[in-house]
Amino acid sequence: MSTADKPKSYTFTAQTYGENGGYVEKTFTVEGPLYHGGGRRLREGAQLTAGRRTNPWGDEGPRSRYVHFTTRLDVAAAYARQSGGHVYVVEPTGDFTIGYSGEEYKSVHPLTVVRRLAPADWQ
Known about the structure:
By secondary structure, this protein is mainly β. The protein has 1 helix and 9 strands, in the order βββββαββββ. It has one helix at about 75-85, and strands at about 10-15, 25-30, 35-40, 45-50, 65-70, 85-90, 95-100, 105, 110-115. The chain has a 4-stranded antiparallel sheet with strand order 3-6-9-4. Strands 5-8-7 form a 3-stranded antiparallel sheet. Strands 1-2 form a two-stranded antiparallel ribbon.
């Protein structure tokens, strides 16, 4: 496996409930690859940004405040299927935090498309 193909690790800091009560800052490590499922066909190097029209099942209002991604290929594939789209390997360009679950994340910063997965790799 070449260095370029090795999964990357990403760190982020978020508030979590502390052992002694109250909230504390904690640093988490996320092992890549990271995935995004969406409706638009994008090229390698493209930027996924917040501010787009949200999905019908989203809860951010008419325009997204975040870009979402996950460590789970099956979750990205489910979003891709719902939007008639594609699954991408992505990298965050800035800080991010926990999204809807412990394996989904969100960022106000763009995601960079590393590559698009072939449909056979996720369908």
